[in-house]
């Protein structure tokens, strides 16, 4: 049974997909490409990609609930694409892959992913020669809502201002599920500068890099403030980049 909340989220994802491609400079040629979607979630980007002519799309995630929806939705609403899409619970770093891919896409995943250097190494291994990874994610941890509300602090940037030990203790008092570190809430905590360093030190060539991509009217203020060196870390809220395997 497909729940309305999941279907609404999937439908919203269809809208976000157009923004994803636009913020990366436009939709690439996906015709006859084999593509891996890392952190596929509800599967809306996979459906979008196969509609654009992809030969095969593999959507992987570690959340069984989201994968159950993706497979059920594929069966009931997009059955014509069943031979071209798979949704599986696969651990990128520890599970085996039987094929290489022309492209890898990942949307709103890197802000949650620890071990990012190892993830990029695996991307590089799984891509064919001259393959590309299309990456878009945010909010970054040091931005105004970079905790995704998961620390349960009410004001922007409080997760950056307050000591981590205080945040953890406060969270554990209020919640049954206990944490030992902020990362236990599914947040990678990488700073903007750390992301840049990781990309620059990877095996990839960065052929496109943009920040603060948004349609929100307030984004202009953030873009202006992020130009100041001492504010850049706290007013840079997302990253969109294309990484090429040479």
Detailed description of the structure:
The chain has a 7-stranded mixed β-sheet with strand order 3-2-1-4-5-7-6. β1 (34-38), α2 and β2 (56-61) form a beta-alpha-beta unit. The longest helix is centred in the first third of the chain and has 20 residues, at 4-23. It starts with a helix and ends with a strand. It contains 9 helices and 7 strands; from the N terminus they run αβαβαββαβαααβααβ. The chain folds into 2 domains: 4-142 and 186-244, 3-Layer(aba) Sandwich (Rossmann fold); 147-184, no CATH class. It is an alpha/beta fold and 246 residues long. The model has no long low-confidence stretch (mean pLDDT 96).
**Beta fraction of the residues?**
15-25%
Strands of the largest sheet, in order across it? 3-2-1-4-5-7-6
Helix and strand content put the structural class at alpha/beta
Report the principal-axis shape.
globular
- Characterize the largest beta sheet: strand count, sense, and whether it forms a barrel: 7 strands, mixed
State Rg: 18 Å
Number of domains: 2
Q: Uncertain regions: pLDDT < 50 for 5+ in a row?
A: none
Number of strands: 7
Known CATH architecture of the largest domain: 3-Layer(aba) Sandwich
User: What portion of residues is helical?
Assistant: 25-40%
Can you write the helix and strand succession as a string? HEHEHEEHEHHHEHHE
Distance between the termini: 45 Å
Return the CATH topology of the largest domain: Rossmann fold
Average pLDDT metric: 96
């Amino acid at each position: 049974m497909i729940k309305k909340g999941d279907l609404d989220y999937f439908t919203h994802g269809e809208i976000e997909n157009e923004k994803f491609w636009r913020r990366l400079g436009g939709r690439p040629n996906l015709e006859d490409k084999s593509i891996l979607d890392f952190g596929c979630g509800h599967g809306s980007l996979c459906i979008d990609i196969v509609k654009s002519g992809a030969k095969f799309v593999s959507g992987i995630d570690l959340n069984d609930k989201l994968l159950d929806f993706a497979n059920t939705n594929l069966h009931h609403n997009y059955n014509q694409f069943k031979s071209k899409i798979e949704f599986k619970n696969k651990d990128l770093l520890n599970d085996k892959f039987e094929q290489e891919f022309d492209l890898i896409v990942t949307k709103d995943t890197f802000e949650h992913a620890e071990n990012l250097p190892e993830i990029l190494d695996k991307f590089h291994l799984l891509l064919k020669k001259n393959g590309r990874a299309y990456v878009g994610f945010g909010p970054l941890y040091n931005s105004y809502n970079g905790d995704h509300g998961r620390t349960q602090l009410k004001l922007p940037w409080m997760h950056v201002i307050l000591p981590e030990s205080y945040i953890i203790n406060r969270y554990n008092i209020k919640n049954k599920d206990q944490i030992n570190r902020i990362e236990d809430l599914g947040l990678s905590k990488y700073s903007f500068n750390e992301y840049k360093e990781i990309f620059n030190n990877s095996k990839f060539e960065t052929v496109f890099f943009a920040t603060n991509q948004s349609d929100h009217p307030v984004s202009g203020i953030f873009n202006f403030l992020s130009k100041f060196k001492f504010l850049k870390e706290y007013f840079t809220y997302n990253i969109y980049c294309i990484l090429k395997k040479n």
